[in-house]
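sorry for the late reply, my laptop died twice this morning and i had to redo everyting from scratch. anyway the thing you sent over, i finally got around to it. pasting the sequence first so we're on the same page, its 274 residues, then the predicted structure underneath. double check i copied it right bc i was rushing
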Amino acid sequence: MARANMICRQRASGRPPVFLPTLALAFLFGCVRPPDPADPAEVPIVRPRILESVPHDPAAFTQGLLIDGDVWLESTGLYGQSELREVERRTGRVLRRVRLAPDLFGEGLALWQGRLYQLTWREGVCLVYDRAAFKPAARFAYEGEGWGLASCERWLYMSNGSATVRVLDPTTFKEQRRFEVHGPDGPVGGLNEMARVGDELWANVFPTRLIARFRPEDGRVLGFLDLTLFPPPEDAHPDQDVLNGIAYDPANGGVWVTGKKWTRLYRIEWPPAR
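ok and here's the structure:
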């Protein structure tokens, strides 16, 4: 499954292969032993249930996802198709959109103090929008690739497909520090779309159906979510791509996930029942 998803993503975006962390490879092939509560080096791996779902545009190559009241804020990718979207949560209807230039590939998305920050993949440009007007307001340059983006307190956290997360000042987009996301088996590479969930940062692990939970202070992994059974068979279709898109609803603590060209968004059980 992971190999098929990797090939699909390479064909769509041209990204080079990503080497999975040891934990992800072992998990996908059924070799991970259950966490031992007596072993402090172990981290939990949970398989959350679906609590509800709502429509998602199957043409949306989801790269970033946020909840802002009654709407989704979504960044979509692919050259010539990338957009910033404001979407009605219950129906999936696009309310407003900004199309990116054909030579820009949209990536991660974050909201900070009334401004939306949208990364681009290889172009080294972060597009900044006024949230209320939904119009461009500024842009910043950065080095390297942009994958995921999340806001946490006064900083922005950016991934680039490796195990490294860069901490940025949203007023200047200058790097303040960086850290490596690491678990019991070492660095966790392939970090993609990110979201703040409570006091944690979560990231999709490309090209798997795992989500890593880690501390924004130092990158220490707190656990993994296993979504290898997502989407359910009744929602699957041939053109869907990898799991990507995590949105936290601070109003009620709900966590939602989706994927590139998936037909639904899913609210998952979090924290899981014991």
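The helical segments are 2-13, 22-28.
thats about all i looked at so far, will dig more tmrw
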